[in-house]
Amino acid sequence: MSGLDLFERLESNVRSYGRMFPTVFVRAEGYRLIDRHGRIYLDFFAGAGALNYGHNDPAMKAAIIRYLEADGIVHSLDMATEAKGRFLHHFENIILKPRGLNYKVLFPGPTGTNAVEAAMKLARKATGRTAVYGFTRGFHGMTLGSLAVTGNRAKRAGAGVPLPYGMALPYDGYFGPDVDTIDWIERLLTDPGSGVDLPAAIIVETVQGEGGLQAASWPWLRRLRALTERLGIVLIVDDIQTGSGRTGPFFSFERAGIVPDIVTLSKSIGGFGLPFSLVLVRPDLDVLGPGVHNGTFRGNNLAMVAATEALRRWETPAFEAAIDEKAALLRRRLEGLRDAVRERGIAAEVRGRGLMQGLWLEPPGLASAVSREAFRRGLIVETSGPEDEVVKLLPPLIIDEAGLEDGLMRLEAAILAAIETIRSEVAPSAVAGR
After folding, report:
1. What is the pLDDT of residues 288-345, one digit of tens each?
2. What superkingdom heads the lineage (predicted)?
């Protein structure tokens, strides 16, 4: 096998990241990926948020090896195993109890979209209502139910069928900074003449990971929580990408001071990048009977072993404090980059929260050009937004300051190169501001 020929010849056209980052990777460690030519790349993509603790964390790897060498159970459906018991014990005592949270834990299939499907099924069963509302630019997965509450037109079109029982409500800031969209939502849901029925649930991301890194304000989230409580609507927080410390605290909603009825977790809850998903459910909403939502790979015990080890990082406040320090550094550096590109006549904004931040750039196509230029410089970053208009940074939470600074220097060089490329391809007037 040489180069990418085999992948081009045999793999489906649906592949995407293999096209964005065209090399064959062979090894990974921490925040670094190494390709077959020995070239080292800084990974500011982190498995689309599935590798918050980096590649091949030594403690998690050792725990997995010990478990396998002891002939531990790998596959168990939803049977009780020692690995599951240890995970539940640690999750309750390290995560739930210190935060005063009382949830039952549902183990769905191991993907994020399966967690979302289970959450919506629970809300519908508990309320007797059928609709679930999402938000403009929201993203919740690629199965039909998740697509019905996803805002991205291109992703929705991929379903090939109508997507009923969902609707997009305006996210925070959708109508500009002077409009509180909760007023609009409240009017729609409480006016008997609006033509809109009360939904079973509303599902929300506190930061829209695929929708352009729009971050909901804490007051907006508190108003949303109060409205759903008053109207008897189940509030689902999709913490699949924003959770497990990605925005600072373990749960992205903690600093808003709210408690959702249901929380979906996946991606980095598996610790090592192993498939794993959870749905946290308010106990009175745990209404599905045995087997009503199941899946052959719910019992991924290797993921539970790694996840248990990952939770140890949260036993003291130090890990969260370190994330906040790196997030502040990232914000300062991005604001400097924003100012630098604005001086070159390019519209730019810093978006996001925690170690889930990025730059919105205009004209169209510039963010994608930055991603390509970054890859040439040994930095892996993706784009976000309905038109790929945001350069999105998801460095592993364990990255050190030197690695973060190195990546940001490469990003700056990539941005400057991309601006010159865009200017050479389009008329100057097209890049002269917003």
Report:
1. 999 999 889 998 999 999 999 999 999 999 999 999 999 999 999 999 999 999 999 9
2. Bacteria
CB 152 within 8 A of CB 171: no
CATH match of 72-314 with 3.40.640.10: yes
Phi and psi, residue 64, nearest 5°: -65, -45
The one-character DSSP state at 215 is B
For 297, the token pair is 């790979």
| Whether pLDDT at 419 is above 80 | yes
Chain region(s) in the chain for CATH 3.40.640.10: 72-314
Q: Which residues touch 50 (CB under 8 Å, ≥6 apart)?
A: 266, 267, 268, 270, 273
pLDDT in tens, 162-178: 999 999 999 999 999 99
Distance (Å, whole) CA 268 – CA 46: 10
Query: How far apart (Å, rounded) are the C-alpha atoms in residues 233 and 171?
Result: 17
Threshold 0.90, pTM exceeds:
yes
Closest listed residue to residue 138, CA positions, set 47, 189, 212 = 212
